[in-house]
């Protein structure tokens, strides 16, 4: 008797992704079901997702880990692939996913290589992210902003790329930084971060630029490399300046 074919759910987390949701879903048709978790969108994200053939679940929640954990409750398949609305699964990755979930191996999860695009240009550095795993292996997602999946069992890596179209406009980048920095500063304040001084602000700002421009080889991206790397320093500056502001209002005892 041939082994039972493994089933797969593709879960898309989305909020106000009207321009991108259809393209994201179109690349997921290899999955047995596509579930879009719409977190309080005010545009046509939900309607377009339904039109594209996805099952839409409406949600209102704070924290990406909480959203992803809630999404897990809707899954009834053997495997799950988590994708964001600004990401697209390449055809090679889709074929590889379909292959590895039906191979009898020890892995209960797989990391996928994500290739980033900043301001429409490819970024020299990418990252491996745990996005594909058996449903019964998922322990849960952790982290307020930079959430990660915790699973039981060994993790492997697969071929193919997940294309990430992020930082599309400078206005959008600044808007997100202003929003996310509130949470980042609050988390550091709750963890009783040492008092912010002028030299700490300079250090984190320069570190953000250095990690992006040198560590991630942003210098290879030309003008976009300069813009993105300066922005990364700016992003850390805003976060730590807001942390300083919190400490001035409510100093630690």
The amount of beta strand, in percent, is 25-35%
CATH class of the largest domain: Alpha Beta
Cα distance spanning the termini: 68 Å
Number of helices: 7
Question: What is the arithmetic mean of pLDDT?
Answer: 93
Please state the structural category.
alpha/beta
What is the approximate shape?
A: globular
Helix content: 25-40%
Largest sheet: 9 strands, mixed
Unreliable residue runs: none
The CATH architecture of the largest domain would be Alpha-Beta Complex
What is the CA-based Rg, rounded? 20 Å
The domain count comes to 2
| Order of helix and strand elements from N to C terminus | EHEHEHEEHEEEEEEHHH
β-strand number: 11
Predict the CATH topology of the largest domain: Spore Coat Polysaccharide Biosynthesis Protein SpsA, Chain A
CATH homologous superfamily of the largest domain, by name? Spore Coat Polysaccharide Biosynthesis Protein SpsA, Chain A
Description:
The protein is α/β, with parallel strands linked by helices and 253 residues long. It folds into two domains: 8-166, Alpha-Beta Complex (Spore Coat Polysaccharide Biosynthesis Protein SpsA, Chain A); 170-249, no CATH class. Helices cover 39% and strands 27% of the residues. Strands 1, 2, 3, 4, 5, 6, 7, 8 and 11 form a nine-stranded mixed beta sheet that branches. α5 runs parallel beside α7. It is globular.
């Amino acid at each position: 008797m041939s082994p039972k074919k493994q089933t797969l759910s593709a879960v898309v987390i989305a909020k106000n992704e009207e321009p991108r949701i259809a393209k994201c879903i179109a690349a997921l048709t290899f999955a047995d079901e596509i579930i879009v978790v719409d977190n309080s969108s005010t545009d046509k994200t939900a309607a377009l997702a339904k039109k594209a053939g996805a099952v839409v679940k409406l949600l209102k929640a704070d924290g990406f880990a909480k959203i992803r954990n809630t999404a897990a409750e809707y899954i009834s398949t053997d495997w799950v692939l988590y994708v964001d609305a600004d990401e697209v699964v390449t055809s090679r990755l889709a074929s590889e996913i379909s292959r590895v979930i039906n191979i009898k191996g020890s892995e209960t999860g797989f990391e996928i290589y994500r290739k980033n695009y900043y301001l429409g240009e490819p970024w020299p550095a990418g990252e491996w992210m745990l996005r594909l795993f058996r449903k019964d292996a998922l322990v849960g997602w952790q982290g307020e902003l930079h959430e990660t999946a915790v699973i039981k069992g060994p993790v492997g890596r697969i071929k193919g790329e997940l294309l990430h179209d992020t930082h599309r406009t400078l206005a959008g980048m600044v808007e997100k930084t202003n929003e996310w920095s509130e949470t980042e500063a609050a988390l550091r304040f709750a963890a009783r971060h040492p008092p912010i001084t002028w030299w700490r602000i300079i250090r984190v700002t320069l570190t953000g630029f250095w990690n992006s421009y040198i560590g991630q080889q942003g210098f290879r991206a030309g003008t976009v490399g300069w813009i993105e790397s300066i922005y990364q320093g700016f992003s850390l500056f805003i976060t730590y300046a807001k942390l300083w502001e919190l400490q001035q209002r409510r100093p630690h005892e």
